Each structure stands twice: as C-alpha cells, then as structure tokens.
C-alpha cells in the first residue's frame, strides 16, 4: 500500500469511527452531560422533576434552533450571562448538540 492510501485509510477511520466523528456527537453522552451540568436551570429531559421557570427548556431550544446548530455551538463555546460558562470542550459541545437535536 502506498503512503498516500495508508494516510487516506487513517484519515477515513478517524473521521468515521463512532464517537470520533466531527460531524455528529453522541446524544447519549450529551444527555448525561445535560443532566449533570444544565438541569439545575434548564428542563433537559421529559422525566425531569424541576427546573427554573424562566429558563428555556431544551425541547424549546431544539424547536427554535434545530436548524441553526452552528449558532448553538457558538453560543455554548462562549455563552453570555445569565448562562454560566462551563468551558465545554468541542467534544462536549458536539455531544450536547446531538442530544438537543434528538429532542426535536
Ligand atoms: C445557572 C443556570 C443555567 C445553567 C446551569 C445552564 N443554563 Fe443555559 N441558559 C440559562 C438562561 C438563564 C438562559 C437564557 C439566556 C437569555 O435569554 O439570554 C439560557 C439559555 C440557553 C440557551 C439558548 C440561548 C439562546 O440564544 O436562546 C442554550 C442553547 C443553553 N442555555 C444551553 C445550556 C446548556 C447546554 C447547559 C449545560 C451545559 C446550560 N445551558 C446550563 C441558564 C442556565
């Protein structure tokens, strides 16, 4: 195998390996993150018992921004007050967005 095709195989594997994709995060991981980090304020899941009344629910966020994932990714990378900044990694943001997208 030539060096070029070996590189191509490597690159392909890296991009498409489950959980390592740049295109899509993992909704199950995102849900766990949401329950841990976001559920004190946001209603993140239907079975959640309590949340702040004046904070948008994740399903309303999904309905509003489902088509604008880039906007949400930007917001989560640098949220404005009153949203706290969790310094999320790109992976965490991708997983959270995969979960939010799944709520639509
Ligand atoms: C301390 C409470 C609090 C926590 C914790 C919190 N948020 Fe928020 N979030 C808010 C508030 C308040 C708003 C509404 C901000 C506004 O209207 O300007 C908001 C808005 C948002 C929005 C919508 C932004 C928009 O422009 O409409 C998104 C998306 C969001 N939060 C995601 C998250 C995620 C993901 C987490 C967990 C990693 C999280 N939030 C944790 C309080 C919180």
- Number of DSSP strand runs: 0
Low-pLDDT windows of residues: 17-22
- The CATH class is identified as Mainly Alpha
CATH superfamily: Cytochrome c-like domain
Query: What structural class do the secondary elements suggest?
Result: mainly alpha
N-to-C CA distance: 45 Å
CATH topology: Cytochrome Bc1 Complex, Chain D, domain 2
Major pleated sheet: none
Shape: elongated
| CATH architectural designation | Orthogonal Bundle
String of helices and strands: HHHHH
Number of domains: 1
Summed up, the helix count is 5
Tell me roughly what share of residues is in helical segments. Answer: 40-55%
Strand content: under 5%
Oligomer: single chain
Distinct compounds present: heme C
Gyration radius, to the nearest Å? 16 Å
